[in-house]
Every structure is written in structure tokens, then in C-alpha cells.
What we know:
The chain is of the alpha/beta class.
Amino acid sequence: xxxxxxxxxxxxxxxxxxxxxxxxxxxxxxxxxxxxxxxxxxxxxxxxxxxxxxxxxxxxxxxxxxxxxxxxxxxxxxxxxxxxxxxxxxxxxxxxxxxxxxxxxxxxxxxxxxxxxxxxxxxxxxxxxxxxxxxxxxxxxxxxxxxxxxxxxxxxxxxxxxxxxxxxxxxxxxxxxxxxxxxxxxxxxxxxxxxxxxxxxxxxxxxxxxxxxxxxxxxxxxxxxxxxxxxxxxxxxxxxxxxxxxxxxxxxxxxxxxxxxxxxxxxxxxxxxxxxxxxxxxxxxxxxxxxxxxxxxxxxxxxxxxxxxxxxxxxxxxxxxxxxxxxxxxxxxxxxxxxxxxxxxxxxxxxxxxxxxxxxxxxxxxxxxxxxxxxxxxxxxxxxxxxxxxxxxxxxxxxxxxxxxxxxxxxxxxxxxxxxxxxxxxxxxxxxxxxxxxxxxxxxxxxxxxxxxxxxxxxxxxxxxxxxxxxxxxxxxxxxxxxxxxxxxxxxxxxxxxxxxxxxxxxxxxxxxxxxxxxxxxxxxxxxxxxxxxxxxxxxxxxxxxxxxxxxxxxxxxxxxxxxxxxxxxxxxxxxxxxxxxxxxxxxxxxxxxxxxxxxxxxxxxxxxxxxxxxxxxxxxxxxxxxxxxxxxxxxxxxxxxxxxxxxxxxxxxxxxxxxxxxxxxxxxxxxxxxxxxxxxxxxxxxxxxxxxxxxxxxxxxxxxxxxxxxxxxxxxxxxxxxxxxxxxxxxx
Length: 733
């Protein structure tokens, strides 16, 4: 028999202080699991729970309780209130937030179910001020003889009583005699909007660095750590790697194009003259972080930052382009269906028709659509199709503003990847040293202050202590990066993703000079494998195998080419030597393309792109140093020609990385050959500094060879001057 009952929704607010978290979960489970048939009216009541944790966005500009009242209390039909040993944070109108919510519901003549826990607790871990305030309020309730609150002895008792009371309340108040009108079966657009905003806030509100076993999972709020990026109208990304083009030779117009803007300035300049902004950035430059920032501005009702003081309400949408869905014919689904499926995958079902209305500004709100990661559509033909699809959405939703992000390698007009819709292109620029320091300061403060306060510790004292620790960590890493020997790390720290990796490693282990190599290894692993895995994009080669291919190539460029650039076909040939030894290897061409498009380790040079260059020179030097270590372990006779380069600028970093990965035997042999050679007869200041650096970097040291060479009378006076270094090593060993 067909069910003729029409479903109606009743919004039920769960209100309580923070000490009854288990009861809140129980209440939510009971409320959302109930279904009350109403035979006389042929409707079915389906209650739905609402809580500030999940149903209120991270809005600013008003007192927190006013926002909760506006978003939850006033639109709820009834409430469940629970208290144990806290009354909550005082508000302007009541002893605690939950008390204000209860009083506001009663003032609106809405039913409230009130429960007091009698579960035993330890006085030693209880806030006596909170407990006393709660007892005073309870006495006032009894004196005023207001209602019939219930107590419960344990969680099971609470569950039984709440379920029975809810069934009685819903039947009497919303079924029998229709004393109260249930929510209409038509879509509750305000409710859907709240849930969608809350989901986006949760999805986009944090900076996440996940996936690598070397990099701990540390999540911090984007609001607490965001540093305004520098964005130019066109940064001419290719030209940064060309030694043939210097800034001084650039025409005045190009200087103006490269003038950086903040994210807010850029949006105000582009919109509303254009409705489409294309943001190009290097791997790890902060493109997704920028999109999250734009989204949070709208979610927190700060859209005036982006659209000016006259901006009205702005509803924001977010969609990673790698998650675009296709129909059976292989065509991309319309935008409303895409947004519906993306939301549904996050347990928030919203009909495509609702998204269609929102995108057409049916309720008067403006719309901002954020498309992230065009380059993450790996198939070239699908990426071309995605551009055409974006053009159609831009045309079809004529009142919606669009932002699209991509790596430069994912947006190449020469390959047919191009947006035809009228748009402005902008490029994300590297972090300046000042931005690095600002990010590190904000990040450490957010990371330390998010740690839970241990029981029995004063929260204010705990917060003060964590703030001091964060400031000290910031100071030490900024000083570390400022050292001349760490100029390679400073180059890497210009990339927001890399400086975040550095921050995580420094927070947990406070890297010293001898551990620098681990930083490069962790960062390479993240770029080569773990970042794509987190996006569910299979890496072309696992990180360990990719390093097997890259390390010999890096040393080949260092020793034979003596150049940072390598001709394409020559590099393919060198890579093929190792790729051919692997099981089911990709071609050298495919591997290089992956290193450019996905890992961001290589870039192509020249108008015809005939040369490759490591995007960050220190990665090549690190890989070359590691290959030297492996090579010399097999053939120590290669140390002698290596020693001849000791003190040359071109070899300083590879030699440092070589010693940082050498064992005690290789260390001793290198020192013996070095002090037997003519190189050490008259050490320059530069060579002395390098000697101190490589010794400091070496994880295993022995003084045997050094003592033989430096402490005998026959040794030259210049060599004798290195005795303090030997004593320093001896104290370490």
C-alpha cells in the first residue's frame, strides 16, 4: 500500500554548556532517528537537530551569542537543554549562553525540554565558580516554579527519558489538533543555505599538510595564519628562470604588470569590470589557500573586502576541478549538478535546482564560483573540455563571478588549453623574506595555542606559556634561515608550501644544521608522491624510485654539463639509463612532464622549451650530493678529483650535501685525501668556512685522519691553523 503521509520537518535546538558532550551526541542521534506519523493530518513529523558546532558558520562582527540566536534559536521550533556542572559562558543577557537560549525560546512561547545530570564527578577537577552559578540558577527555577525539568542518573537513563519526552511532545504539539505548525515540506532554503555554509567553513577553514610519514599532521585555522599573497597581472613566470633576461632590461609596461597587489586589491580591480579571474601559480605557491581565503571572506560576511563597500550579500561556491563528474556520454554535467554531487559526497544533500536558483541570484544574493586546480585534470583532452565547460557556465550564469586557478604548466594556449570567456589573468608571486617571517610567526602561534590545556593547569597561564614557546620557535627558525650557509633554504622558503613544511619539522624537531638534509628529503618526498596521493592522483613513480632517476641526472649536470640547464633530449637520454632498470617504467618524456606539471621540480626554458631547469637549484645540489655519496662508497678513488673542487662556489653545496650523507669511513677518507692534496696547503678563508660547514653537517665523524695530518710537526703552518677544528670534532666524538 502506498504511503500517503507527507513529511514535515521540526527544527530542534540542542542547547548545553561544554561539559555534556556525550549527552549532546545522544540527543542528536535520538532526534534525527525519530519519525512520528500523524494519522489525523496525514503527515509524518521528522525532527532534525541543530547545534552551534555544526550549524553556525565562523562569522565575525557580532557577539557570538547574537549570531547563535540569529542562526539557530529564533528559527528552531523547540529545544532540548542539558546541564551538569557548568552554566556556561556569561552573556550580556543571562548567566550563560545556554540559559539565554532557553529563556529566548520560552519568551517566544516555544516548548523546551530541560534536563539536569546527576552523574557523579570529582570536585578537584570542577570549576567551583561555574558550579555555584549553576546551583544558584537552579534554585531560582525551583523558587519560580517554572516547568517540570527532569534529572537523570546516567547516559542510558537520559536516552530513555529524552526519547519518551520527545515522542510525547512531537505528537501533542505538532500532530494532535495541529497546536503548532510543522515546517513546510517545501525546501527550507534558509536551512539549506546554513548547512552549505557550515560545510564550506569546515572544509575550507583550515590549512592542512597531510600525507607524508616525515611530516606530521598539523592543522591550523586559515584565519589565524593567512598572509596576503602578492599577485601581479602577469608575472611572466617563464622569464624568472632565464639568465638572458634581466629586470633592468624590462620595458616600463612589464614593470607595471609585475607590480604586486594583495588578494583583496586584485578582486576589487577585476570585479565587476570582468566576471572571470584566472589565477596562475607555481606548485605550492598558495593557489588553493587563496581560494579558501576568498571563500572565508564571503562566509564570514566580509565580502566588502573583495567587492567594495557597496557589495551586498555574496554566496560563495567551491569546486575542485579534478572532481568534475561526467555523464554516460562522457560530457561534464551542468554546474548545479556538479555542486550537488560534491555537497552530497560530504553528507549534505542539496538538490541541483537549489544550486541553480542560487547561481542565478534568485534570492537577491550575488554569487562567487571558485574553481580550483585546472592543472589537476591530468588528461589533456579533458582539460581542454573543462575550459570549454567553464566558458559555458560563465555564459549561462551571467550574474555569477568566477575564479579559476591553475599551474602555468596546466594552462598552455599552445596545447589548446585556453579560456575563451573574457577574463583577466593574474600570477601568484613568491613570498618575500618579510612574508616568510610573518607566516612563521602566525603559524607557530596558531599551532602551539591549539594544543589542549592539561587538567589542573590554569588556561590563561597555559596560553601565555604556549605563546612564549611559539615566539621562541619563530625567532630560532628566522635566525636559522638568515644564516649565509642556509641561502638554499631561504630560496625554498619563498614557496608557501615549503615554508609550511619547514615550520612543521621545526616545531616538532627544531632542525639544526646537521639535519638540513632530512628537510630536503621530506620536502622532495612530499612533492614527488604524497601531495598527489592526498588528492587521489596516483604518482607516476613513487618518491624512492623517482630519486633513483633524478640523482644521477643531477650529478651529471653538476660534473659533466657544469650547468643548471640541460638540453631536453640529453636529459631524456640520461634518465632512460635508470628508467630502463625499473619495472614498468614511464618514458623519460612522460617522467619529465610529470616533474614539470605535478611535482613542480623542473621547468622548461626558452620559447621552444628545448631545455630543462630544476625549479630550485638546491634540490639539484642535494640530489647530486646524495649521488656522490653512493658513488664514492663504491669507489673511494673518486674522492681525489672531488677534492680538487674544494672551495669552488659551484661545488660548495653539493660537497656539503655529500658529507651530510656520508658515513664515518667516507668522512675519514675524504679528510685524508683533502689534507694530502695541494688544495689544503694554503687554505683561503672561504675554504676554511666550507671545511667547518661540511664537518658540522657530517652525521658521523672520526678524527683519525685529521689528527694524523694536522697534529704532526711536518704539517704546513696553514694546515696547523686548522687544529681548533680538530679539537672541536674531538669534543663531539
